[in-house]
Amino acid sequence: MLRRLFLAVESHSGSSRSPGSASSSFGAVQSKRHAASKPGAGLATSMQQHWRVKPSSDVPTPGWGLALPIIPSSTFKMMDAAHGARLHAKDRSPEADEDGYVYGRWGNPTTHAVGRMLSTAEGIDIEAEGSCTYVFSSGMAAITTTMLTLLTSGSHVVAQRCVYGGTHEVLSGILPALGVEVTWVDGSSIEQWSAAVRPNTRLLYAETPANPSMRLTDLEALGALCLQVNLSRPAPERLAVAVDGTFGTPFHQQALSYPGVDISIHSCTKYLGGHSDVVAGCVTTRDEGLLKRLGHFQKLLGNSLGPWEAYLLGRGMKSFVPRMRTHSSNAQQIAEFLEAHPNVTAVHYPGLKSHPDHELAKKMLRNGFSGMISFELPSYAKAAQVCERVKCIHLAVSLGATESLIQHPASMTHAMVPEEERAAAGIPGGLVRLSVGTEEASDLIADLNQSLQ
């Protein structure tokens, strides 16, 4: 019975990884695994078709539960010594094959099923390609594992200045201590990205839309830069492009649909989970060699997601598409209100015509412009005051939940970034970040209006 349950969970979104579907390494000629349709095309339909439990053929459909099963086992029984030997000889993969599982830190059927859901959201054809996603214990676990997988002492990474505060700490502190060189650039300037590339550069790290400036990085141009550089490099020296798309979410932006973009990262704590009740992250790539390396690092670092958290993430993802429609619609209305308010000095939202990347946003972001807004007030004190005066909006960090959250980056999420670096990244002391929830837009506007008086 337990074996049947494993099979049911493993087939949650389709068949297992098909053999022979490996892609070439970073930036090389694109294989069928990297072939992609128009960014965002048919996304909502695709998600809703695949995000459901689909039992395998040996489990009767009538009476089978619709909820994702939770398998909390830390270890898994082996049929015989030969079976155990096969399991221990395998490379890590985002999902198990017919031999099943060996140990919870190496993989779990509940977590793997959620990985398949995330792969679907990222535009992966799981029927043809299998799962391409590892699920982590947090967004930062996903980010740091990706960097540690790609970077070694003596290598170089180019990163945009405006990134999440925790990411900035890794790039400015941990990586240099390990002998990795870091160059900061304006993420919206492809010229700066290009000029920063060196012979030892191994990673271009982007975050788009950026937290909290809401500036965009042109992923088509960045991917093209990576492909161009890699034309003259042997495989071990090739560049990779990694994109943290947490603010954009797969509903608005599928990073892997851009040739040359190798890795998509999300903090699943945010919109994908969507209910402020789970901490998780994910990394998706079509590169078979990188998948094995990421899996090896995840296994040794011990930062994979547990089955209970995976269940919560999977449950949250069932409502992801309608939630994102509401987040985006509400945010557009609120951004327009804030832009017209006399006490607000600037509003940063890609859906506004005044946004410097609005035309790029219309090309890159589908189905709206996300639920994240940042806006500026005349001073640090005024920004803090507005955050304290809201009544139905919650003063809290994190984002992407059904409830609206407001916070002050200079004193909270980006307090660890030196003031001069914050200024260079477009994060002044008067900046406020607003994660627009799914409440009534009119209630949120009324709350902001009274707080701005």
From TrEMBL:
One cellular component term (GO) for this entry is: cytoplasm
Please cite one Gene Ontology biological process associated with this protein.
transsulfuration
Q: What is the lineage of its organism?
A: Eukaryota, Sar, Alveolata, Dinophyceae, Suessiales
Q: What is this protein called?
A: plant cystathionine gamma-synthase
What PANTHER family would the database entry show? Answer: TRANS-SULFURATION ENZYME FAMILY MEMBER (PTHR11808)
Pfam hit, one:
Cys_Met_Meta_PP
Sorted alphabetically, the keyword list is:
Pyridoxal phosphate
Provide the E.C. number(s) assigned to this enzyme. 2.5.1.160
Provide any one GO MF term from the record. carbon-sulfur lyase activity
Catalyzed chemical reaction(s): O-succinyl-L-homoserine + L-cysteine = L,L-cystathionine + succinate + H(+); O-phospho-L-homoserine + L-cysteine = L,L-cystathionine + phosphate
Pathway(s) it belongs to = Amino-acid biosynthesis; L-methionine biosynthesis via de novo pathway; L-cystathionine from O-succinyl-L-homoserine: step 1/1
Give the source's domain of life in one word: Eukaryota
Which family does this protein fall into?
Belongs to the trans-sulfuration enzymes family.
Where are the stretches annotated Disordered?
12-47
Q: Which PROSITE patterns match?
A: CYS_MET_METAB_PP
Q: Which cofactor does it need?
A: pyridoxal 5'-phosphate
Answer yes or no on keyword Signal.
no
The enzyme's main class, written as a single word, is transferase
Please list the residues that carry the modification N6-(pyridoxal phosphate)lysine: K270
SUPFAM superfamilies according to UniProt: PLP-dependent transferases
**Skewed-composition ranges (Low complexity):** 12-27
Which CDD domains does this chain map to? CGS_like
